[in-house]
């Protein structure tokens, strides 16, 4: 686990304090009157003021998944991460740690790095060539005649960072939520055997969905719609999220097959000393989490038409491909699938109240050779199709929320994780508004 980067950006206070009192009262009432077990009122998905509150209360205060260590394999490697009004530089430093810097030049605010990813030594702003060290210190500013210019006062502003099991998280709060370290201790034993430090990017996909970020997360948190994912249903049991008494007749045989596969998977996990039990604290802790190891259909190895492995190389120190998927959900912006042959990370980055960037990254063993050990099209096919289908579903909901006829509808029993996500969200924003 990495230590946090010191000297975070100082907050400008609660956004609500800069709004008219009547508007704050109206927004607070929307949260107070939220009907448990129902979707949110339309303004939560369409109103720019509520979006700005989300950016300050959620994305400006909580731990956000930014990237994996596989995206920064060498010192000087960086990615830029943008969401809402924020732009961050996530940079691998010389000692193997990670620095997170606000991508805002201290001269006149220009973006310092404009590429989505790359390698750099010092960071040079393209506007007036102000130059910063990898830790953000200003080391050069051409300023003739500025005899009193003190470079030490103009370093790039910093954010906190944590690295758990090869996943990089950032937080811009002055004092980040402290329970994230405890959440990291929960999921690290599940993910560590896959060893992300020995993986590489096979492919990364960015999709802009014309929907509010909360609709993207709600869609991910349930499988009630999984009949709309024919490619995924070849390997992912469409009974996910269901329990005895909730199984429709046409899925009874699938449910029985799932139970048998899950029992066999748990036997293998016990044999190899791998944790598999469900841990579900989505709205009972600030750093909400759900993690488990779940069986897959067919050969039970990967997201393929027959469940067979998609890469010939096992990850980390795993000894068996038949390990299903280790599935993890983290509030507020990410979910993950860790398999024996590859890993898929999903990150949600809000753009505005009606657009969201969804970034999907496929990781394989660092010694896997494309065309020899894996076929890139086959590796990515299932989730590329699933992502496009989810994009369409989210956009249908955004269009509906924008209609005068929209009113909140009830969540089904199988959508309990959607309710947990919304409950978590409402709690966090109410804390901010208070």
TrEMBL record:
rRNA-binding found in the keyword field: no
Known cofactor(s): Fe cation
Chain ranges of the Rieske domain: 63-170
Keywords, in A-Z order: 2Fe-2S, Dioxygenase, Iron, Iron-sulfur, Metal-binding, Oxidoreductase
Pfam annotation, one family: Ring_hydroxyl_A
One of the record's GO molecular function terms: dioxygenase activity
Domain of life: Bacteria
PROSITE patterns linked: RIESKE (PS51296)
Protein name: Aromatic ring-hydroxylating dioxygenase subunit alpha
Originating organism: Cryobacterium serini
Organism taxonomic ancestry: Bacteria, Bacillati, Actinomycetota, Actinomycetes, Micrococcales
